[in-house]
């Protein structure tokens, strides 16, 4: 199986013919009209993933384009707070488009809110701050690439365990779009989280996602969306009026204010993701939670995936898989992954040498002339050590150009060997006499 290294340092392995046979289905995580998501185990590495099966023949042409667009955007963005893409393929047996992503081990935010509702409890404020800061960083990364998510809701926020605590990851890019001129016109998204711009059917930008983020954070605290009504007309009026109840009193005013900044009806007064992260309270909370600032400009937008005439030809259009695996070891025992990371000592002999306080030269970085010189001196050392003690004592009395007594104190530095046009450093040898030519 051929392996390549991507620009982000992880190993990517592209199976020749991926299919559902490469996975063991564990359980269903969710189901919709034309798609279902499963928890699976990949046979090749034994790791768990989320696999989304889309019934492609049942979709309209527009829905098929959206499905391909989701693959494109997922594969384009690498961010801690965005569900990472792993693979995509068309399974001919089931006639399904399969999208493999990382598995969020804590489920989604909607499930967490439902559990709090049943238990009559609230999410810890520290968790909500961590979710808010992480998702704001994720949106900043998307907006820097002029990608608008357009469907922020609690069901699309996934939760994963980490050393920092539970972190939120943004997923489901099915209706996301790349704005060529910085604005979008299409009305889309879930009504409870739709911004006033979308309800008024006017052009919108990334500030619309910030409204959705405000609604999600409000719901995480209050366990219900900020705007609710019996019908769409009543919901539109409430959203465009922008009036809502304060989050429960168990939360600080600082959290209420942070959410309020994102629920400004006029997008001019609503902060962008970058501006929100620069607010003093956000910086203070990020510092307190040990959340480092992330670089939003590390991803490259892939080219548009075009729908082929025959579905069987889809697999050739997909981005390369991004499974992280260990690179294989070649026949000589040299780990190519170690070589790529610049590690000089990959053999057992060099590991033992490091423990003894010196480093053996390797063929990777040592000039051939130095290798030959080292071999000659190693041969001389072996011949000297095989001599009887009487001959070795006699050798100590000869000129400096010959070998000294083996019982002399070992010098603290390697000797220098002069050769025409270059100076080569010999490796330090423990418990052996120093060679001087």
Structure characterization notes:
With 437 residues, this protein is an alpha+beta fold. It has three domains: 114 residues, Phosphorylase Kinase, domain 1, CATH 3.30.200; 180 residues, Transferase(Phosphotransferase), domain 1; 65 residues, no CATH class. Helix content is 32%, strand content 15%. The chain is built from 13 helices and 13 strands. The chain has a five-stranded antiparallel sheet, covered by helices on one side. It has a two-stranded antiparallel ribbon with strand order 1-2. A two-stranded antiparallel ribbon has the order 8-11. A hairpin with a 2-residue loop joins strand 12 and strand 13. Helix 3 packs antiparallel against helix 5 and helix 5 packs antiparallel against helix 7. It is globular, with a radius of gyration of 31 Å. The relative contact order is 0.11. The N terminus and C terminus are likely disordered.
Note the main attributes of this structure.
Phosphorylase Kinase, domain 1, single chain, disordered N terminus, Transferase(Phosphotransferase), domain 1, 437 residues, alpha+beta, 3 domains, 5-stranded antiparallel β-sheet, globular
């Amino acid at each position: 199986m051929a392996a390549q290294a991507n620009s982000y340092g992880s190993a990517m392995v592209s199976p020749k013919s991926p299919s559902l046979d490469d996975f063991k289905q564990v359980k269903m995580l969710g189901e919709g009209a034309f798609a279902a998501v499963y928890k699976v185990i990949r046979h090749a590495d034994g790791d768990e993933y989320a696999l989304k099966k889309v019934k492609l023949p049942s979709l309209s042409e527009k829905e098929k384009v959206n499905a391909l667009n989701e693959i494109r955007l997922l594969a384009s963005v690498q961010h801690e707070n965005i569900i990472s893409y792993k693979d995509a393929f068309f399974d001919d047996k089931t006639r399904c488009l399969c999208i493999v992503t990382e598995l969020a081990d804590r489920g989604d935010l909607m499930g967490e809110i439902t559990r709090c509702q049943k238990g009559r409890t609230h999410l810890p404020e520290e968790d909500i701050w961590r979710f808010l800061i992480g998702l704001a960083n994720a949106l900043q990364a998307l907006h820097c690439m002029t990608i608008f998510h357009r469907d922020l809701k609690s069901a699309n926020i996934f939760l994963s365990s980490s050393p920092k605590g539970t972190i939120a990851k943004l997923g489901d890019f099915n209706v996301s779009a790349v704005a060529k001129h910085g604005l979008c016109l299409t009305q889309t998204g879930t009504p409870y989280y739709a911004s006033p711009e979308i309800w008024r059917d006017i052009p919108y930008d990334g500030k619309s996602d910030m409204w959705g983020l405000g609604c999600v954070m409000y719901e995480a605290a209050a366990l219900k969306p900020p705007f609710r009504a019996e019908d769409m007309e009543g919901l539109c009026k409430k959203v465009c009026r922008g009036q809502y109840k304060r989050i429960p009193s168990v939360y600080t005013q600082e959290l209420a204010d942070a959410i309020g900044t994102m629920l400004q009806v006029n997008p001019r007064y609503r902060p962008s993701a970058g501006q929100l992260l620069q607010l003093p309270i956000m910086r203070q909370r990020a510092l307190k939670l040990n959340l480092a600032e992330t670089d939003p400009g590390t991803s490259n937008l892939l080219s548009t995936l075009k729908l082929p005439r025959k579905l069987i030809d889809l697999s050739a259009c997909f981005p390369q898989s991004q499974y992280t695996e260990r690179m294989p070891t070649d026949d000589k025992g040299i780990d190519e992954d170690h070589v790529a990371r610049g590690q000089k000592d990959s053999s057992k002999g060099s590991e033992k040498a490091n423990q003894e306080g010196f480093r053996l030269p390797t063929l990777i970085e040592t000039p051939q002339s130095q290798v030959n010189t080292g071999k000659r001196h190693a041969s001389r050392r072996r011949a000297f050590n095989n001599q009887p003690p009487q001959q070795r004592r006699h050798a100590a009395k000869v000129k400096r150009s010959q070998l000294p007594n083996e019982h002399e104190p070992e010098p603290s530095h390697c000797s220098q060997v002069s050769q025409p046009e270059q100076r080569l450093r010999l490796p330090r040898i423990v418990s052996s006499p120093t060679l001087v030519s």
